[in-house]
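Page 42, continued from yesterday. The earlier attempt failed because a stray header line got pasted into the input along with the sequence. Redoing it now with the clean sequence only.
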Amino acid sequence: MAGKPVRPVNAIDQTRRMLSLVTYLRERPGARVEDVARAFGISEEELVADLDVLPMCGTSFRGGDLLDIDTDGEHIWWHNPDDVAEPLRLAADEATALLVAARAVATLPGLREGDRQALLRATAKVEAAAGEAAVSSARLSVTFESEGGVFADVDRAIAERRRLWIRYYSPARDEVTEREIDPIRLVSVGHTYVEAWCRRSEARRTFRLDRVAEIKILDEPSAPPEVELRDLSLGLVQPAAEDPEVVVEVGPGGRWVAEYYPHDSADELPDGGLRITLRTPDPASLRRLALRLGADGRIVAPQDLADSAREAARAALAAYEQVEARGAAG
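This time it went through. Structure tokens are written below.
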């Protein structure tokens, strides 16, 4: 297809463009792809990418009334504009979800002030129409973990294809490290993460945004090697067959480990516990699990990991005893 080369764009800009695109296409049935791309100042490839997303949008939180939009490569056809144009009627749960989401988005760093004010005005109108549902929604809130504009900086770095410098806290090692990373994408699986190529480890890594202590956008271009994007529908942690094997035995109070950690097997023990075999690229990270389990579990293998977990437990116990001794002396 002809048109401008594909350029990076952040999520906020793309959302703004797609909202305008809906109005534009409603007024121009059968519009030519080339003309629409030119009108929005984007390439035809970018336009087609937007058109792939629009059919997943609609006026119902329950999945109905989706936009029936498609293209034959030359023209764009919207088959149900009249259905979507009908006055929107929100159920109480839909109004609550919309208001909570709108208030959360209004707090996003990187949102243009004009867009923020427009969103707040629209939110106020929905609140006025929602009545009791608006009162209920005021009791709920959504907080983004990306303090200090981390989300906005990562999003901008991806859009501009620039490298990032971060100071990152790793709870598995209880340490803060400095890294340069080439961001690949933002993902949300329970928390918000950036998947990136880490120049420190020369490997693909995933960093949780709320653990980024400091971030800077560098002048160096981001140049991650070609990597196949993982399907994260099964979860963020997906152990590989070549990862080291760890065996953990838990009592009845530790059976939750089998629910939260991907594992190869979980065999019943006579006391009602489980013998869990799992794989992880970073076995040392399981020391914190052993400390959390306490009397409800222990690492059985490999032996060096079991020994280090016991040493960590002894050190923690000694630290508590010192604190108690100082308290008693005071």
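Notes: The first strand starts at residue 69 and ends at 71.
Reminder to self: strip header lines before submitting.
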